[in-house]
Write a structure and sequence with these properties.
With 199 residues, the chain is mainly beta. 3% of the residues lie in helices and 31% in strands. The radius of gyration is 16 Å and the shape is globular.
């Protein structure tokens, strides 16, 4: 259970309210889902050791068109990860020109008010084909989601891809080689979706 501390001025030392909320919830995963142990890529740290959120102007380790999504300065659980060098992971950039293989969904809050990693670089990537996971907003990009699901024929699969801000989206990146991360099982509400991982 992730404990969130909404605070005044993003200062976690000044706790105004404590609420428990997980943005990524494994529903069917006893044999399907694995929280793969990995490490933040060095590009996600500033020289002083603080978390560096990937910017729209970045060219390394991958070029980006949008800043990675954050909530109160924290990269959110459910963000799509790509495999870097060794056991390192980087935040997906939503590009499809080179058929990027999604590696998993970030399991922790990184940086900002809700930071789970602090001085360590250890994180988990939830992965496993056919694992069923609930994602709670803002762990996914809801742009176009309701329409895509409403317009789908019975039995038609609605795929989710890594978006330019790193979150899952129904908006397929340009190019023919985009690899889906998951597909929608159910939109439970405007704040919760149930997905089936395909990675």
């Amino acid at each position: 259970m992730q404990v969130l501390y909404p605070t005044h001025g993003n200062d976690a030392s000044n706790i105004l309210l404590t609420a428990q909320k997980r943005l990524i919830r494994v529903v069917e995963g006893q044999t399907q889902a694995t929280p793969y142990a990995c490490f933040l890529d060095p590009s996600l740290r500033n020289a002083d050791g603080s978390i560096r959120v990937p910017k729209a102007t970045d060219t390394e380790p991958l070029p980006r068109t949008e800043e990675a999504f954050t909530y109160m300065g924290s990269i959110v659980p459910g963000t799509v990860l790509l495999k870097g060098k060794g056991e390192n992971v980087i935040i997906a950039n939503g590009q499809a020109e080179k058929a990027q293989q999604p590696f998993g969904l970030l399991g922790q809050w990184v940086g900002g008010a809700f930071d789970n990693v602090h001085n360590t670089n250890e994180v988990s990537a939830w992965r496993g084909p056919d694992a069923v996971i609930d994602l709670v907003a803002p762990a996914f990009n809801d742009e176009g989601l309701t329409e895509a699901v409403a317009n789908a024929e019975p039995g038609e699969r609605v795929d989710l891809y890594a978006g330019a801000d790193g979150r899952l989206t129904v908006n397929k990146p340009a190019g023919e080689d985009a690899i889906p991360v998951a597909y929608i099982i159910e939109v439970q509400s405007s704040a919760v979706i149930r997905v089936n991982l395909v990675i």
